[in-house]
Design brief:
It is built from 16 helices and 21 strands. It is an alpha+beta fold. It has four domains: 117 residues, 3-Layer(aba) Sandwich (Rossmann fold), CATH 3.40.50; 133 residues, PAS domain (Beta-Lactamase), CATH 3.30.450.20; 79 residues, Helix Hairpins; 161 residues, 2-Layer Sandwich (Heat Shock Protein 90), CATH 3.30.565.10.
């Protein structure tokens, strides 16, 4: 966002605002914000999805702010009630996939909540931008709906409408480009000029393919134009969170693009309009988070070395009572190992997300990989008399991927299953082929995972709390598993019931040669 912290909304108009939030502290923080900044908000607060539905059945709002996770629903349930009302999604879970889904589902913006409620400092600016965005979008839609009629009108009337449109487009914070059915540029606002480096006068003589070049930030390859996607599908199309626009002078701008068809009354497509949003700030924040984790991890290696050195020294000290010495050293050593595991987990995630991890794509024997994993974990299972069971299918095909990463993925899943299974329990791992996918299933008959915890189990540092069970771990294992699955263009599913056990199912494409990138 281009707004500065502390900026105030200058428009004196009173906005109708609905806050859908089940957390009382967040409700109070919002009310305090409105009071302290003297915001001209005529607001209502809904503490649940059901309450929001009741309010929205009889009232319309200029903007709706909703938490992602509600007691009786989610933000996506609220989206279905809003019609064309702009919505801002706020959540404490900074999950990129959820953010993308929210934006695709119609959210104007996605904000990450924090314990100190610092996100509220920019909320007034986001609210104003959402409302202004809705106004300009409505004006633009009205123009598109009447485009055929406008073309038939007199030259003087058309000139007046073009001037009104120019004013509307110039007030937008996003780039707007419109083309006809032959992809010739017919509209090009100031923000689009700034992003692409082309003036509207120069761009008018070109097709959009000559002016707009978007690449995948990881592969550095040109991606399919959103305009082509719309002309192919006939519907609204969006870019990805890896899109980078290459300007005329070679400058690079991370962007999020959304394109939609322009239709005549009979449904025929006569053009495409695209909105380009500069997301450089958001992606820079993500990069800074990754760098921070990497830096902290490296700094923690020094105290870890000291802890291990002091442990060795104390063990050699003849003056300390042996029982006390060994008790203390055992605790220090265990904590040191946990700290080391945390560091390695953080570094692994950082390497994967930064693209610095080395990823080989070679044929592997999945049966051998599983045998190596089980051999390494057998002693761990024996401690609590847990039976490790395997069921390897026939004619599995040959998986193409990074054998070390696949081994790490399976190791984490089986290790978790053993940790969360009671004594004399059973952990099973089975492999089968389904079409062009290899399916790896790791199950147990252990404690199970509460339903409310399932959406978060792949989050970093998240650990399922089991009453009375002090199970060690860093909360990074499943996050690493999810990253490895994504690296191999696969997907992972989980099913669990308390007291009945948990099953993780991993689907990996056998042919990963086609367009796999970190």
């Amino acid at each position: 966002m281009s707004c500065q912290l502390g900026d105030k909304i200058t428009d004196n108009k009173t906005y109708k605002v609905l806050l859908v939030e089940d957390d009382k502290l967040d409700q109070m923080a919002f009310e305090r914000l409105v009071k302290e900044q003297e915001l001209a908000y005529d607001y209502r607060i809904a503490g649940s999805y059901a309450q929001a539905k009741s309010i929205l059945d009889s009232e319309k709002f200029d903007v709706v702010i909703t938490d992602y996770s509600l007691g009786d629903g989610t933000a996506f349930d609220v989206f279905n009630l809003l019609g064309d009302m702009p919505v801002i999604c706020a959540t404490g879970a900074g999950d990129q996939e959820t953010a993308v889904k929210a934006m695709k589902a119609g959210a104007y913006d996605y904000m990450i909540k924090d314990f100190a409620h610092n996100y509220l400092k920019v909320l007034p600016q986001v609210v104003e931008k959402a409302i202004n965005h809705k106004k300009t979008k409505d004006a633009l839609k009205e123009y598109h709906d009447n485009l055929e009629t406008l073309v038939k009108q007199r030259t003087e009337q058309l000139a007046e409408e073009k001037e009104l449109l120019a004013v509307t487009l110039s007030s937008m914070s996003d780039g707007v480009i419109a083309v006809d059915a032959q992809k010739r540029i017919i509209l090009f606002n100031k923000v689009a000029e700034d992003l692409t480096g082309w003036s509207f006068n120069d761009a008018q003589t070109k097709t959009v393919d000559d002016v707009l070049r978007i690449i995948d930030d990881k592969t550095k390859k040109v991606v399919q134009s959103p305009f082509d996607k719309v002309l192919d599908s006939g519907g609204t199309e969006s870019g990805t969170d890896r899109d980078v626009l290459i300007a005329k002078d070679g400058s690079r701008y991370p962007v999020y693009a959304t394109a939609a068809p322009i239709r005549k009354e009979d449904g025929a497509i006569i053009g495409v309009v695209m909105v380009l949003r500069d997301v450089a700030r958001e992606r820079e924040i993500d990069r800074m988070k990754t760098d921070f984790v990497s830096s902290v991890s490296h700094e923690l290696r020094t105290p870890l070395t000291s802890i291990k050195a002091y442990t060795a020294t104390i063990l050699r000290d003849p003056n300390m009572p042996e029982q006390v010495r060994n008790e203390f050293l055992t605790i220090v050593n265990e904590e040191s190992d946990m700290l080391k595991n945390l560091i390695e987990g953080l570094l692994e995630i950082s390497r994967i997300e930064s693209g610095a991890v080395k990823f080989s794509r070679e044929p592997m024997d999945i049966t051998t990989v599983i045998e190596q994993v089980l051999a390494g974990l057998q002693h761990f299972a024996d401690k609590t008399n847990i039976h490790l069971k395997t069921d390897i299918g026939d004619e599995l095909g040959q998986l193409q991927g990074d054998e070390g990463k696949i081994q790490s993925m399976i190791m984490n899943l089986v290790n978790n299953a053993i940790k969360f299974t009671q004594e004399n329990g059973e952990v099973s791992i089975s492999v089968r082929r389904e079409g062009n996918e290899l399916v790896i299933i790791v199950g147990d008959n252990g404690m199970g995972i509460p339903k409310e915890a399932l959406p978060r189990i792949f989050d970093r540092f998240y650990r399922v709390i089991q009453s009375g069970k002090g199970i060690p771990g860093t909360g990074l294992g499943l996050a690493i598993v999810k990253d490895i699955v994504n690296m191999h263009a696969g997907r992972i599913e989980v099913q669990s019931e308390i007291g009945q056990g948990t099953t993780f199912t991993v689907f990996l494409p056998l042919n990963t040669q086609a367009a796999l990138y970190l």
